[in-house]
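To whoever picks this up:

The nightly regression suite flagged Transmembrane protein as changed. Nothing in the input moved, so I suspect the structure step. Input below, exactly as stored in the fixture:
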Amino acid sequence: MAPVAGALSAPAPAVPAVLQDVRLDLGTERASALWHIALQVEASDVPRTFTLWDDAHVELVHARIDTHGVQSAPDAQIRTSNALVILEVAPTQHTRSLSLTLYARIALLPRMSGGPYAIRCPVLRCDHNSLQCQFYSCAPPIHVRAKEPHRMQSAQWVEHDAAPLWSAHFAPTTELHLEWMPVSETAPIPLHASAVYHEIWACTQPQRLEHCVHVHVGPLSHGTYEVCQLPSAPDHLAAYVDGHPVPVRIDASSTSPMAGPKVYCMLVATTHAHLVLRYSTPWPRNGVTRPAFSCCLPILCLRLHSTNGQRARFGPLGKAHTTYVTGAVATWFDVEPYEFVQVPVHWISESISLWWRYAALALSVAAAFLALVALYILHATSEYFDLRTDMLAMALDIDFSDGAWLPTPPAQRSYAQQLTAWLQAPWAVPV
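Regenerated output under the current build:
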């Protein structure tokens, strides 16, 4: 569920006791945080609102609420107003469990020259706060200090795989500061993918290309991974693992002017995962450039969808196998690491002008009218020929009823018949 912005009349109370699991990706420009929060909502006859945090340095990007499959669980939503992040829960007759997944970006605090990077870690306003933070993209020493140290209890560092873990219990509204030095940053881990499926949609209004890159990866450990290298900086970038958003950032620093920005994602330990990158680029002039990956790929497929009246066709491709069954699809095998390939693409407009449609309709109507006129002429001509044939037969005293086409010769009349005919003639009748 995405956060919903709205005006708030009064500050909401703090949430009840929760367990916070925070994964922090600490960079040199901005930090990313992924919260997994479990809380209990008590029965109530009226809607309830809870303040999650109030911090202007936090930008909430995505929020998701899980009701653990309970159909009668209370409806809940996340609202934001300026720096406030509020959880709203509908009335419920029973105590319910909710799980929140929040992904946010945290702005860095002002840094002195040569000093450490620092952020103010947002802590939920809870009655009893239990927090555990796991850190990625940097190695110890990481300094965690509270604005009021006496409010913190049982804080300790725990070694957990490759990422350091910090756990503490403290009073509500405790302000935490994290500090780290850039020299302690660890190198990102190259991501070894088994297959990549790249989809592109063409949008005419505005003229942009929407990209969706599906990356299938094998076993992973905790850490920040170098996913790919883009030919240019995208307008927006989002990453999802199995449908859930994950922290992602772009590093534009490079020693080579020809190299593009690199994409880094913070991933957790899993046996296999389906990573999806979504980003947009300007409309290309000559073609599209395939992203480069840090490992050798067994197979890479590029599919261009035909949308908004635009049909894609590939130009000459040397090593790719192309098909045009369901869109334009190009397939490469055994792709080398960090290999940028310029793919020539021609976009053909499939839209038909309105005047052409009117012309086709007019031609169809004219053809139908001419066909009706021709049928009428044939029918009239046939009737005329039948009438002329009957008149000719009557004039020649031809009898067609017996099937003979020759005229029947008249029989020789007797003298009495001739005399009777002469007497019946008009000139024989006295006036």
